[in-house]
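The freezer alarm interrupted the setup, so I double-checked each line after restarting. Inputs confirmed:
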Amino acid sequence: MNKKCDFQILSDLNDDCVYLDSAATSLTPRCVTDKIGEYYNCYNANIHRGIHDWAERATGEYEGVRPIVKEFIGADQDKEIVFTSGTTHGINIVANCFCSDWTSKDTVILSEAEHHANIVPWQQLKARQGLRIEVIPLLPDGHLDFNRLSMAIQQVKGRCIVSMSILPNATGIMLDYQQVSQMSRDHGATVLFDGAQSVPRVKSDVSYCDFLVFSGHKIYGPTGVGILYAGDGLLDEMPPYMGGGDMIKSVRFERTTYNDMPWRYEAGTTNIAGVIGLGVALNWVENIGIENIYQHEKEISDYAQKQLNGLDRVSVLYPEAEKLGLVVFTVNEAQSVDVATLLNTQGVAVRSGYLCAEPILVSQVGRGVLRASFGIYTTQDDIDRLIDALNKVMAIL
Amino acid sequence: MNKKCDFQILSDLNDDCVYLDSAATSLTPRCVTDKIGEYYNCYNANIHRGIHDWAERATGEYEGVRPIVKEFIGADQDKEIVFTSGTTHGINIVANCFCSDWTSKDTVILSEAEHHANIVPWQQLKARQGLRIEVIPLLPDGHLDFNRLSMAIQQVKGRCIVSMSILPNATGIMLDYQQVSQMSRDHGATVLFDGAQSVPRVKSDVSYCDFLVFSGHKIYGPTGVGILYAGDGLLDEMPPYMGGGDMIKSVRFERTTYNDMPWRYEAGTTNIAGVIGLGVALNWVENIGIENIYQHEKEISDYAQKQLNGLDRVSVLYPEAEKLGLVVFTVNEAQSVDVATLLNTQGVAVRSGYLCAEPILVSQVGRGVLRASFGIYTTQDDIDRLIDALNKVMAIL
Amino acid sequence: MTIEAEIQDIKEMLDDIPDDFAKYSTIIEMGDELEPYPEEFKLDELKVPGCQSDLWLVAERKDDVLHYRATSDAVIVKGLVALMLQILNDRTPEEIRDFDTDLLKELGIKGLLTPGRQNGVGSLVQRIQLLAA
Amino acid sequence: MTIEAEIQDIKEMLDDIPDDFAKYSTIIEMGDELEPYPEEFKLDELKVPGCQSDLWLVAERKDDVLHYRATSDAVIVKGLVALMLQILNDRTPEEIRDFDTDLLKELGIKGLLTPGRQNGVGSLVQRIQLLAA
Ligand SMILES: Cc1ncc(COP(=O)(O)O)c(C=O)c1O
Ligand SMILES: Cc1ncc(COP(=O)(O)O)c(C=O)c1O
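Predicted 3D structure, all chains:
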C-alpha cells in the first residue's frame, strides 16, 4: 500500500524528507485541503443561524460530518458526537462536566502511561474539589497490570471513572481495552478511552466505553478539531463547559436555557472548516479501510522494531512487546536531542524528549527518548533510511 | 475601495450573491487560504516539541503570529497574546481563570446589548460560586447609560470586572469605550472588551483595557481561532483553563508545574493552520489600513441606514444613531424569517432572528430582526440590490 | 393516494415554477388555505421547538387516522406546514411512522430538512411522527 | 574584536562547511574545547530553563568584563554554548546588554532562536543578557 501520492507534501519536491512523526501530527491528504478550500471559496458562512444559501450549505456539510463520525466509531446516534477542538478539549469536557460535582470520595483511575492530556485535567479537578487519582502501573513487559487495576476498582467507594489511552503514545503498546472495559463496568465504573493514537489505526468500537476522544490532526484531518463521543444521556443534564452562542436555547439575564446534545458542548463559532475537513479525512480512511491501515502499520512497526533491536547501541523501550504505529528508543551514551538534531540534517524527522508523557518515561527511561512513528504513507524504505541515518549519527556521537 | 478581487468566493461565478452577513463570519481572501494550504503542503508538523525542519518551520510561523497580533492591537509583549479557538473561548478563559475565586461579593458589569458569549459564561460562574451580575441598560438612543454605569460601579463592594462589547453585534453602535475604561479604572475595576465586531473595523488600542478578545473568522481569517489579549501579569498565577500538553513545564503524578504565559492557556495541539492563517489575514488588513476599512464601512453603513430608513414598512433599530458595520431592522407586518428566506431567493444573504443577543432584542424589538452587515468587499451596489430585493419581497408579504 | 404519490404530485407542481421566489409565493398561498388553527390551542405545550418563528401543532384521532392541525406566524413556515399536512394528514399511525422523511428531499425545497436549521419543518415532521407513535 | 566581527568570522567558517551534518560535527567539536565547567556548579538554580537537555550557566565579574562558564550534557547544545561564549564571553555588561540577538540569525543555524523551541540557545542568550543587567 503506497499512499504517498495522495499527499502533496510527499511529492517529489519533498522526496528527501522521511517523516516519522505521525504520532505528533499526521500529514494531510489533498482531498482534505481541497475541502477546506471549498468551504472558504464556495460557502464561507457561519452555521445553524443563517438561512441563506451559503449558511444552509455550510450547516449541511457540518452536520453531515456527525453521521460520518458516528459510523466510523460505531456510535448509535448523531447526538452522541460532539465536535471539539481536539483530544485535550474532549478530556477537559468530561473532567469538568461529567465529574463536575465529584469530590474526595470519587476516583479517577489512570494508567501510568497516559499522555499529559489525560493527567493534568484530573489533577486540576483534584486541586479544586479533591477527587482521588489512582495510577495503575505497567508490568515489566509494558502491558497494564490488571491485578492492580482490579484491586483499585474494588477499593473505590464513591463514583469512579477509568480513563485510559487505548494506544499510549509513549509505548505504542495496545491496551487490552476490552478487558479494561469489562472490569470497569463490572464494578459500575464509567469508561473514558483516549483514542488519539488508536482511532487512526485500529477499528474503534464505542460499545466498550462511555466516552471516546480523539483529534482530527492525527487522523489525516485538519488541526484544531476533534471528537468527543459521549454515550446517550451522559452529558445531557450536566452544566456545560464553555458558555456562549449556539449552546443555548434561550438567553435572558434572569434565566438561560441550554441547548440539547450535542450543541450544548459546541459553544460559539466552532472550527467549521476543520469539522468539514475532518469528515473528508474519515471518508478517505474508510475508503482505504481501517483494517488495511492496521495491517500496514503493524508490518512497518514490526519491521522498525526489529531493525532498531538489531542496532548495538540502541535500546528499544519494551523491546519484546508488539508495537503499533510507533517505536520508542534511546541511543546509549548519546542524548536524544543530539540524535534527533543530527537525524534531521539527513532528512529524517523523529520526535525526541518526553513525548508529553513524562511520568512513564521518567520512571522507565529516566531521560528523553526518541520516537519514530508511522502513518499510512510510511514505507519500509523510510525505515531503512532511518537506520542508515542512525548509523551515521552514532559514528560521530 | 473595491477589494472583491481578493476573494475567490466573490469571483464571477458567485457574482449573483450579495453577502450581507459579515458580522456572522467574514469572507476569506485568497492569501489566507493559500497560507493554510502552504502549512499542510510544506511543513505539516506539530509545533514546539519537534526539532525537525517541518516542526521548526511550523513553530516559527506559529510564534511569528504573536508579534503580528501584538502590533495590530497595540500590546507591549508577545506573551500577552494567547491563541484561543475564538471570542467565546477567550471570554470563558477570563471568567473561569481570572475570576476563579470570585464570589457573591464580587461583581461583573455587562451592558444590556451583549452577545450571548459575554453573558452565559458569567451566568455559569454565578451559578457555581454566586458572583453578582449587573446589567447596564442602553439609553433610548442606543448608547450606554453612563449614569447607570457610574452608579453600578460605585456600589461595588468586592472585586469588579466590566465586560462589554466595543461594537455590539445587535446594535452596530460603537461603545464609548474610552469612557467605560476610565470610569471603570477610576474605581479599580478590571476591563474586558469584546472586540469581535470592533477589531475588524476600528483601530484597537489595548491600553484602554486589561483583556481584549476577538475571533479570526470575523476578521478575514480562518474559523476555529481567536485571540485573548491579557495584560502582563493578569493571568500568570491563575489556575489555567484547560489542562493538557504544551501548557505544562513538567508533569508528575505528585506535582505538575504549569507553563509560563502565553502557553499556559494553549493546552494541547491548537489550531496550528488557523493561527498561521490568522497572521496572514491581519497582515492583509494592515496593508489595506484599518483606517481605510473604517472609512469604507462607515460610508456603506450610513448609506444602508439611509436607504432603509427611506422604506415605509421598514423600522431600523435606533434609526438616528450612527452605525458601523451593520444595520438591524424589521419589516412591519412581516416575520423576519420570511423576509430573509425570500431575500435569499434573490441572492441576498442577510441574518434573521435574535442574533445571539436575545436580551437586547427581546426588550427593544420583541421579535426576531433582520441584520445586514458589511465587510471590506461590500459595495454601494450591494446595498442597492438589498433595497430592490426588499421592495420585491414586501410586495408579496 | 399514497404518501409517495402525494409527494410526487407536489414535486411536479413545484418543478413547474421557474424560480425560488415564485415557488415560495406559491407556498405562501398554500398557507392561506390551511384549516384554521383555534386560538385556544396556541399553547406553549403545543409549540414545536427549534424554529425562528412560532409553530404550533395539535393531533387528534379520527377513527383509524390521525388528523393534525398546525399553524405558524411566519407565512413561509405556514405554507410549508400546509404542504406537509397535505402529504401526511388523515393517515393511519402506521403510515406516518413508517414514512421515510428522506423522501421529502425530493421536493427540492432547499434546506428543508437540514439538521440544526431553524425553519422548523424538520422538527415539525419529527413531532408529527412522534404523535403517531 | 567586536561582537559583529566575531559573528561574521564564525559565519564564514560555517558557510565553508558543505552540509548541515558536517556543520553540527564541527559545532560538537567546538564543545570539546569549552572551558571545563565545575561539577559543583551543576545546581538547579544555575539551570537555564526551556531546554530538552540540561544547560547550566554561571557568570563571574572579572575587572570590567563578564566571564561566563556554561555546559550541557547534550553535545550539540554544548557546542552551541561554546559558539555563543566565543561571541559573548569576556565583554563589558554594556556590550552584552546592547547586543541585538537578531544578529545571531546570520549564523544560518536553523531554528537557533525560534521562540518556543527546545534547544535552549535562545534561553541561554536571554540568560546571558539578564546576568549582564
Ligand atoms: C460582539 C460579539 N461577541 C462575541 C461573538 C462570538 O464570537 P465567536 O462565535 O467567534 O466565538 C460574536 C460573534 O457572533 C460577536 O458579534
Ligand atoms: C495518547 C494521546 N492522548 C492525547 C493527545 C493530545 O492530543 P491533542 O494535542 O490533539 O489534544 C495525544 C497527542 O499528542 C496523544 O498521543
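Quick read of the result. The domain at 31-286 of chain A is CATH 3.40.640.10 (Aspartate Aminotransferase; domain 2).
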